[in-house]
Amino acid sequence: KQWYQRRVRAKVVILVAGSIGLNPLLSMLRAGAGTPTTYHLLYSVKSLEELVFWAEIEELRATHQNIVVQYHLTQESTPEYFTPKQAENFREGRITADQINCLLGEYQRTVSGEDIRVFLCGPPPMIEELDSNVDAKCEFEKWW
What we know:
Blueprint: H1 2-8, E1 12-18, H2 22-32, E2 38-45, H3 54-63, E3 67-73, H4 84-87, E4 90-92, H5 97-107, E5 116-121, H6 124-133, E6 138-140
Parallel strand pairs: 1-2, 1-5, 2-3, 3-4, 5-6
């Protein structure tokens, strides 16, 4: 955890995960929990059934003030049986560059752009789309 924190050196880390691309980013989220850095996870899946590690992510979010999470369902609506509290962290549709750019703008009101890092992990088309259109340097690794 200490090694990772020394390497990140950011005040805000935006993690963008598509499907199983969550796995490496979840390690970063775990390492960053409880640190002074804000971690904002955008996690996109087709359906609730594909939402892996949901309980763990929610536990991290509930117990650490520096963790912010938004889930995106691309082929399913937010279930009607969700409580308003559960539903507030869900969006319908894919994660977009516009959404990330809006987040960047919000964070840049209080933090220098140099102190914000963006990490992407997901399907290659998602990475290519976001890397080309996000108004910040995106760090990623294409591995499938």
